[in-house]
Each structure stands twice: as structure tokens, then as C-alpha cells.
Amino acid sequence: MPRGNNATYSDNSSIKIKPFIILILNFNICLQQINASSFLNFNDLTSSDKPYFDDISPRNVSAVVDEIAILRCRVKNKGNRTVSWMRKRDLHILTTNIYTYTGDQRFSVIHPPSSEDWDLKIDYAQPRDSGVYECQVNTEPKINLPIVLEITADNDFHDLKTEKKFYDLKAARAKILGSTEIHVKRDSTIALACSVNMHASSVIWYHGSSIIDFDSLRGGISLETEKTEIGTTSRLMLTRASLRDSGNYTCVPNGAIPASVRVHVLTGEQPAAMQTSAAIGNRAYTAMITIISVKVLLYISSLKEHMYRRER
Questions:
Q1: How many whole angstroms separate alpha carbon 248 and alpha carbon 182?
Q2: Any idea what DSSP says for residue 241?
Q3: What mean pLDDT is reported for the chain?
Q4: What's the pLDDT band for 67 if we cut at 50, 70, 90?
Q5: C-alpha distances in angstroms, 97 versus 20, 69, 118, 223?
Q6: Bridge pairing between strands 131-137 and 174-176
Q7: Which pLDDT tens digit goes with each residue over 133-188?
Q8: Which long-range contacts (CB under 8 A, 24 or more apart) does 210-215 make?
């Protein structure tokens, strides 16, 4: 009997110990899973190399009117992501990677090959360019770097034709193709073109004292620049011409002497402004011949009457 009791006690002890061992084993497995998961998460964080901004550039940039403004953006670990520049005031995407998505050719991206820099360059900066710009990377979620641009100089516009001292007079210059005095009807298309005897890096058009704004509410403005073997040709088109489009237009190539054309938007068929000096001269000549002819006829008539009286 005692022996049997010992066996029963051993069996009972075994029954009580087994759940405890199982609990310890399960706890150990859980710890291993937690450690493995933590290790994987840490590896994900250290090896994912997500893009981020190397925020060493100033967040506030000042520029001078008609000078170059540069907004700097350095992106680390870009990978196959896209870097874009957006103008905050109208949410207009200006550039994506090295491509420009605005008709305003003053905007471009400076990206030396194999570099991490994606700087926005604005030629001939104007007061209206002031505001907030964002350098963006299309991660999930998207990251952005806002930069404030301020144009500090006044908006004095110098007569571009008198600034020849900035150029080599024997070198590059712009030339308006066709007449430098153009008349168009209202609601028609204004087509202007100028050629430059060099490969100009950019060509800007002015209307009066302001750079033409391709993103203005007016709309219907387009610019086409063509590089040829001997130089550059720039063509400006404005659809649905109105009286406000009248005025002086100046083609300003980078590093060349500008050229201007005068545009008259007409409401009538052929106003006095369209009369050429030749036409006026022809009218004056015709009037003079008419007067002389009348005087000759009167003299002949008077002479005939005098002779008739003498015969009587």
C-alpha cells in the first residue's frame, strides 16, 4: 500500500508540473517572437533609407528685382522618388524633377548630375514672385520644405534699349521678325517673333514695364522658343486680343541686346492710325491735280468767252 501511495503521489506531482512547464515554454516562445519582431522593426528603420531634407539652407530668401533668385532644396536618399516645386499662393506645380511645368520660362531647376540638390531658379525676379514656395517629395505621407521668397528692391523699370552697356555691341542682339509696328483687330491673335544671333539660355518678353505673366487670369498666352543652327527664335502669341493688350512689347534674350515692337489693337476696320504716309501723299497729289484741272478748265472757258465777244 505505501508503495502504491507513492506512485499516486508521483503521478499527481507530474500532473501539476506539466502545465507549469507548458506555461514557461509558451512564455519563452512569446519572448522570442517579440525579440524577433523588434529586431525586424529596427532593421526596417535602419535600412529603409526614406527620403528626407538636409535642412541646411535658409527658410527665408531675399532677391533683387530683375536679378536671379535661387531657392535651395537638398534631398537625401531620394531613390526613385520625385522632387517637385510648388507655388503656395495658387498651388501651381512649377517643376517636377528636372522638368518645368509652367509657361513662364523664368523658372527652372538647378540639378547637377549625381547631386542631391534640386534648387529652384527664377530669372528676372519680380515683386509678384514674392511668397511661399514648397520643395516636395512624393513619399507616403508626402514631405515638404517651405521657403519664403521676398523681392526687396523697388520695381523701377529701365529702358532696355538704353542698357546696351551691359552687352557687347558687336555680339548678340535680338531682332523683331516683320514690322516693328503691328495693327491687329480686337479678338484676333497677336503673334510676335524675335530672333537672336546666338543660343540664348532664356528669352523673356515684357509688355510695357512688366514681364508677361503666363499664369495670369488673362490666359491665352503661349511662348515657343526654338534653337537653330545660327541662334534662337522666340515666338509669343496672345489670343483674343483686347485694347489692354496694346502697347510696347520687348524681347529680352539673356546676354543680348533687346528688341521692341509696338502693337495697336483696333476696334474699327481701318482707323486713321493705319493710314500710311504713302496713302496720305497720294490723296494730297490727287487733290492738287483736281484743283489744277478745275483752274485750267475755268481759264479755257473764260478765254473762249472773250474770243466770242471779239468776233461779235
A1: 10
A2: -
A3: 76
A4: confident
A5: 63, 19, 8, 22
A6: unpaired
A7: 999 998 888 899 999 999 886 544 444 444 444 444 455 788 898 888 889 999 89
A8: 210/126, 210/157, 211/106, 211/124, 211/126, 212/236, 213/104, 213/128, 214/102, 214/103, 214/104, 215/90, 215/92, 215/102, 215/103, 215/104
What confidence score (pLDDT) does residue 58 get? 77
* Residue 7: all three cell numbers together: 506512485
Note whether 278 and 286 are within 8 A (CB): no
Q: What share of the chain is helix, strand, coil (3-state, %, to 5)?
A: 30, 35, 35
Question: If you average pLDDT over residues 29-53, what whole number do you get?
Answer: 56
Q: Which amino acid is located at 166 in the chain?
A: F
Spell out the residues 6+ positions from residue 226 whose beta carbon is closer than 8 angstroms to its own: 232, 233, 234, 235
Q: How far is CA 268 from CA 29, 183, 247, 264, in A?
A: 93, 11, 17, 12
Q: What does residue 120 show for φ and ψ, rounded to 5 degrees? A: -90, 125
Which pLDDT belongs to residue 160? 45
Q: Is the pLDDT assigned to residue 255 strictly greater than 60?
A: yes
Closest CA relative to residue 191, chosen from 135, 287, 263, 127:
263
Structure confidence at residue 157 (pLDDT)? 44
Statement: residue 40 has pLDDT above 50? no
Q: How far is CA 229 from the centre of its chain?
A: 25
Residue 76 C-beta-side C-alpha neighbours within 13 Å? 8
Omega before residue 141 within 30° of 0, cis: yes
Looking at the whole model, is its pTM more than 0.85?
no
What is the Cα–Cα distance from 132 to 284, expressed in whole angstroms? Answer: 62
C-alpha cell at 231: 541662334
CA distance 150 to 127: 8
